[in-house]
Amino acid sequence: MEFKITNAVMGVRPPVTKPHPGFLHELGEEGMRKLVDEHYELIRNSDIAFLFPVNDEEDFEQAKKNAADFFIQICGGHPYFNDNRGEPRMVGRHAPFRIDQHARKRWLELYAQLLPQLEDKGVKKEYIQSFWNYLDIFSIWMVNTK
Ligand code: HEM
After folding, report:
1. Ligand 1 pocket, residue 65 CB under 6 Å
2. CA 79 from centre of chain
3. What is the end-to-end Cα distance of the chain in Å, rounded?
4. Mean pLDDT, 10 residues at a time, over the chain (146 residues)?
5. Whole-angstrom Cα distance, residue 108 to residue 35?
6. CA distance 43 to 37
7. What separation in Å is there between the alpha carbon of 25 and the centre of ligand 1?
8. CB of 139 closer than 6 A to ligand 1?
9. With contact defined as beta carbons under 8 Å apart, do 128 and 119 qualify?
10. Which domains, from first to last, does the chain contain?
């Protein structure tokens, strides 16, 4: 597996390939929620914590839920995000937050810390790689600040 971070050019939205459904299939919904939970807990102790609702436990838990709902949906699972939040419109939803290259890089690095251990939980390397490739490229879309 190679967790490479593609250079982001602000305003450029490279075509995105959804993660392989095998990722969710092997990880399971609970596994996905645990992954997102752990990512947010790493964020809490990072230099991008200021972007997230770390001072309000209820909002922070809700943020985890929304993100996990989305990832389950994008991996071919139940459309929880559409059910609970409506159309994804991810770029628009990130617009209120000043996301720069550094924030994207850190956000990705925190996922890179967590993904290797999924192999021990029975998720094939190629599926983990496909999830990473999705995060790497789609996160470029969210960069909205120089
Ligand atoms: C693959 C790329 C990404 C995906 C799929 C994604 C997904 C999401 C989702 C689903 C939400 C919840 C939106 C809602 O329900 O309103 C969210 C919120 C958020 N995301 Fe992302 N995100 C991505 C990249 C990033 C990056 C790179 C950053 C910056 C470091 C970031 C920062 C945030 C912030 C600050 C929120 C709001 C938290 C809150 O108060 O709910 N996201 N993201």
Report:
1. no
2. 16
3. 30
4. 96 97 98 98 98 98 98 98 98 98 98 98 97 98 97
5. 13
6. 10
7. 23
8. yes
9. yes
10. 21-141 (1.10.490.10)
